[in-house]
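User: Can you predict the 3D structure for this chain?
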Amino acid sequence: MKQSGVTLLELLVTLTILTILATVALPFTKVSTKRTKEIELRQNLRVIRAAIDTFHLEWSRDGDTLTGPACVKNKLSCKDVTGPYGYPKSLDVLLGVKLTGEQATVRGTTIKRYLRSIPLDPMTGAADWRLRCYRDPASVKDWCGEDVYDVTTHSQELALDGTKYRDW
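Assistant: Here is the predicted structure, written as structure tokens:
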């Protein structure tokens, strides 16, 4: 009479193979998670920077000289929402600028939006972007509070390519 079953040796060999496969697969999942966050960070930076650039094109000014088309048409709100170089005073300005000129009364449009919401920083999990003013050098640590020329992450970590996320 022959009994069927698994011997202890077969069971140990199977468990050893599964352990080896699991230890090989674990680093791949960590790298793919990090790569996904990096892609999301690049995309969010691109979206915010495009909104800042579009805002600057429309609301540009040089001190008291109003040069942008939206700034010229909405003189009352121009200085309230822009810094001295025509960049938004804060990221919240990109969520909606109240129009005060003829455009608001003729077309019925009272708010101009550049972002629906401020994207989250995937590295920190919050919308706590590091801000930089127009007149600041790229390596500045503290925001001057005048305008928003650029954004970066607060993360001090290194990317998969060896660069710092905050330098992106």
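The mean pLDDT is 87. The first helix runs from residue 8 to 59.
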